[in-house]
Write a structure and sequence with these properties.
By secondary structure, the protein is an alpha+beta fold. The protein is 49% helix and 21% strand. The chain has 15 helices and 14 strands. The strands form four sheets. A five-stranded mixed β-barrel has the order 4-5-6-8-7. It has a three-stranded antiparallel β-sheet with strand order 1-2-3, covered by helices on one side. A three-stranded mixed β-sheet has the order 9-10-11. The termini are far apart.
Length: 416
């Protein structure tokens, strides 16, 4: 029986990844509880000590220094010892699972899809189950029971009853880890992922930079005939991935991030954190993208608010700005050019940046700067009022056409 106990402890330690010494201590504590229960409440204060020899499995028990035979305690204490032991081993296993998976937070894990619970997918893997909430599932993807699945370990929480392992396939780091798995140069930090913006299931933009002049960052990520990027796209169910070349120049990075659209001109306003990008008419839809996705992801990737304008729209804004300021004493065309160099291309921009850039960057007298900003503010108000008026007229015209349609229908019915 003693050697059998040793084998049982070793099996539990191996299968559940629990420290062998912890199991022995749990066994000793369970036996103490059982012995104490067997003597009832009258002897609740007695000193009970149980020791298990770690080598032979021999059990020694003492009650107030008097040796007792644990085999003579009967069925009920044995049942108590079993219940206590099960509880303690479950607690140890939970601690072991938490310790293992909390260290793997942020890693990709392979699992098997199981059942859906309230929209969340239960994924099973070694020794544990994970939960992928609906918000962490890629839109349009469905996983069948028994299907192999890759997920990112997003979070690990130790609750009272179990360890909750939260999984994700929508998090940007899932893409980052996939590149590390598929592109050795990324895993070895020869290529660095400098930025990543994602709308899961639709499109991802990723900016890469090579720390080795001999290695082309974009080419290495794409792979021979697109083999590497194809593996990642297949894993994501066809999600489009734009690999962008990183640049320390904000203008170059913004132009790269807006690809496949070709950019004509970029004006950057550091005070507003905004970039005004000019593209030709035939590039406008490419630059904006379906439902604004291309420009939105480019803005998130670069960290700049991006406004897309056609050349005619850009020229109209600049012309309006120049006209607004032309009658102010001390202001000439050179001043307008300096504003454009600061990325201020419209009266709305000028109103928003205020006095400080004009005084500090352009050296304009504070009184003149105040006049300039006030003129821009008045023009901005006029434009807002004109826009509101046109919107109201458009709504009224729509209502009128609608009413005329109703009247014609009614007239036709009367005629019938």
């Amino acid at each position: 029986m003693s050697q059998e106990l040793i084998r049982i402890v070793d099996n539990i330690a191996r299968d559940k990844n629990i420290d062998r010494e912890s199991i022995f201590q749990d066994l000793e504590a369970a036996m103490v509880s059982a012995i104490r229960k067997s003597y009832g409440k009258e002897e609740a204060d007695v000193d009970i000590v149980v020791t298990i020899d770690r080598g032979s499995g021999e059990i020694t028990a003492f009650k107030d220094e008097e040796k007792i035979d644990v085999r003579s305690l009967g069925r009920i204490p044995a049942q108590t010892a079993k219940q206590v032991m099960i509880q303690k081993i479950k607690a140890d296993e939970r601690d072991s699972i938490f310790a293992e998976y909390v260290q793997r937070k942020g890693e990709i894990i392979n699992g098997v899809a199981g059942r859906y619970e309230g929209g969340s997918l239960v994924v099973t893997f070694s020794r544990a189950e994970g939960i992928m909430p609906r918000t962490e599932q890629i839109t349009g993807e469905t996983h069948h029971p028994g299907e192999r699945i890759r997920c990112l370990i997003l979070d690990v929480r130790d609750t009272a009853s179990q360890v909750r392992i939260i999984l994700s396939r929508t998090h940007p780091d899932f893409i980052r880890r996939l590149f590390e798995l598929e592109v050795p140069e990324v895993a070895e930090s020869i290529i660095e992922i400098k930025g990543l913006a994602r709308e899961a299931g639709y499109r991802t933009k990723i900016a890469v930079h090579s720390n080795d002049d001999k290695v082309d960052a974009v080419g290495a990520c794409v792979g021979v005939r697109g083999s590497r990027i194809r593996n990642i796209v297949d894993e994501l169910g066809g999600e489009k991935i734009d690999i962008v070349r990183w640049s320390d120049s904000s203008q170059v990075l913004i132009a790269n991030a807006l690809k496949p659209a070709e950019v004509s001109e970029i004006a950057i306003c550091f005070e507003l954190g905004r970039a005004t990008v000019v593209v030709s008419e035939d590039q406008l839809s490419l630059a904006i993208g379906k439902h604004g996705q291309n420009v939105r992801l480019a803005a998130r990737l670069t960290g700049w608010d991006i406004d897309i304008l056609t050349p005619s729209e850009y020229n109209r804004e600049v012309e309006r700005l120049a006209t607004c300021l032309k009658d102010i004493e001390g202001i000439n065309d050179t001043f307008v050019d300096n504003l454009l160099a600061l990325g201020i291309i419209s009266v709305l921009d000028l109103e928003e940046v205020g006095l400080d850039p004009l005084v500090e960057e352009l050296g304009v007298d504070k009184a003149i700067a105040q006049t300039v900003v006030s003129a821009a503010s008045e023009e901005a108000k006029r434009l807002a009022a004109e826009k509101s008026r046109k919107q109201a007229e458009s709504i009224m015209a729509q209502e009128q056409r609608k009413n005329e349609g109703v009247e014609k229908t009614a007239s036709g019915e009367e005629h019938d």
